[in-house]
């Protein structure tokens, strides 16, 4: 396994192990994060670990035109059950994502260092947020990295305190990104929830083509 020094570059993506782990350590500087996302790499670890960098194969993605919206969700949209905004409360969303405890997860990977770095990415309009409101209360949301030049959005995390709120926000985001010409939404790794929304697994090599990165880069 490759252990990164402070300013050391990532190893070739082909060196990722069977689970997709590429490297350990390094920093969360803005240049490193921007490079990572542009090359199909993302940080994911809990607060008891060093920074872990991943590039899994296969990769879970959603093609916007394949989004599945259930009848029950269509009813919620018909009723306008929630109000959705974009980039109005990035900090509220990422902090709420950090506080949510998830099954099988020890601690949170959204550490204070992650929040600080992604807040900076938000100031550069690279990290984006979706807020879901009910009676002026933030009840759900998600955030991710928008690679506008490549027309790819990389989903990072979502939260909900009211049933279906995060799903409502995600569907709204996908529709918005589709209108903006986004070709692919990176969901990173498989979950049944994502599959129910139409996401699917593709090879890492195919995913990297959307980023215009040679596999051996």
Layout of secondary structure:
Elements: E1 2-4, E2 21-25, H1 30-38, E3 42-43, E4 52-54, E5 59-62, H2 71-79, E6 83-86, H3 90-99, H4 112-123, E7 127-134, E8 137-147, E9 152-160, H5 165-179, E10 184-188, H6 192-196, E11 200-202, H7 204-210
Parallel strand pairs: 1-2, 9-10
Antiparallel strand pairs: 2-4, 3-4, 5-10, 5-11, 6-7, 7-8, 8-9
Explain what this protein looks like in three dimensions.
This protein starts with a strand and ends in a 7-residue tail after the last helix. The model has no long low-confidence stretch (mean pLDDT 93). It has seven helices and eleven strands. It folds into two domains: 2-54, Alpha-Beta Plaits, CATH 3.30.70; 59-210, Leucyl/phenylalanyl-tRNA-protein transferase, C-terminal domain (Aminopeptidase, 3-Layer(aba) Sandwich), CATH 3.40.630. The strands form two sheets. It has a seven-stranded mixed β-sheet with strand order 6-7-8-9-10-5-11, sandwiched between helices. Strands 1-2-4-3 form a four-stranded mixed β-sheet, covered by helices on one side. By secondary structure, it is of the alpha+beta class.
């Amino acid at each position: 396994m490759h252990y990164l020094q402070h300013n050391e570059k990532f190893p070739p993506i082909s060196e990722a192990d069977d689970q997709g782990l590429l490297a350990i350590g390094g920093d969360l500087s803005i240049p490193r994060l921007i490079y990572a996302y542009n090359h199909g790499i993302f940080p994911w670890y809990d607060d008891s670990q060093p920074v872990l960098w991943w590039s899994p194969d296969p990769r879970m993605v959603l093609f916007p035109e394949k989004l599945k919206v259930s009848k029950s969700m269509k009813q919620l949209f018909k009723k306008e059950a929630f109000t959705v905004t974009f980039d109005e409360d990035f900090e509220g969303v990422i902090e709420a994502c950090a506080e949510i405890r998830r099954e099988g997860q020890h601690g949170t990977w959204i550490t204070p260092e992650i929040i600080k770095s992604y807040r900076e990415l938000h100031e550069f309009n690279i990290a984006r947020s979706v807020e879901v409101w009910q009676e002026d209360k933030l009840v759900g949301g998600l955030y991710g990295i928008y690679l506008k030049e490549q027309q790819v959005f990389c989903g990072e995390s979502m939260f909900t305190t009211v049933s279906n709120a995060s799903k409502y926000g995600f569907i709204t985001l996908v529709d918005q990104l589709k209108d903006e010409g986004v070709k692919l939404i990176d969901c990173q790794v498989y979950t049944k929830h994502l599959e129910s929304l139409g996401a699917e697994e593709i090879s890492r090599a195919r995913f990297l083509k959307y980023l215009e990165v040679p596999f051996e880069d």
